[in-house]
Amino acid sequence: MADMRLIVAGAGGRMGRTLVRVISETPGAVLTGALEAPGSELLGKDAGVLAGLPENGVKLSADLWALSASADAIIDFTIPGATIANVAIAAERGLVHIIGTTGLSVSDMAVIKSVTSRAVVVQSGNMSLGVNLLAALVKRVAQSLDESFDIEIVEMHHKAKIDAPSGTAFLLGEAAAAGRGVDLHARSARGRDGE
């Protein structure tokens, strides 16, 4: 079986560098592209070196179209605007698009959903197994408790956190709303909305 050829979007960021390291340690996976924002001072740098590894020959690029010619999938933990820009190219090129970007708006999610009839997209506000199991439990509990019970999600982060509520809070909120059969955005009240 051939190796899964992967592009990491946001390869110069904290999560991107972690993904580059994980891919380098994963049998059956190979990093073939490293995407970074246009104008970034990291463009042209070696993705391996940025991730604290030996040089791997994969240079950071801002050209997803060119990178996608030799890839099977893109792993995208960037910012909403970058993710939405990547969605159309990934779909057109037939890439599996794994989206871990948080802070996506309702309209961003509509754009993502619009390509799912012709492309494989895996999207979650939190990729951890534990949190996704928790979301399944939250949905079941919300189904079991009637409207006389309020559901609250309280989280704490540093005040510079860009996406508030977090992707995890939205994931759990969506699970609770699905359990209750209501629309989260129509029924939620938030104490803070970050960018």
Automatic annotation (TrEMBL):
One of its GO terms (cellular component) is cytosol. It is an enzyme of class 1 (oxidoreductase). Pathway: Amino-acid biosynthesis; L-lysine biosynthesis via DAP pathway; (S)-tetrahydrodipicolinate from L-aspartate: step 4/4. Its EC number is 1.17.1.8. Residues 130-179 form the Dihydrodipicolinate reductase C-terminal domain. PROSITE patterns: DAPB. This is 4-hydroxy-tetrahydrodipicolinate reductase. It comes from Bradyrhizobium jicamae.
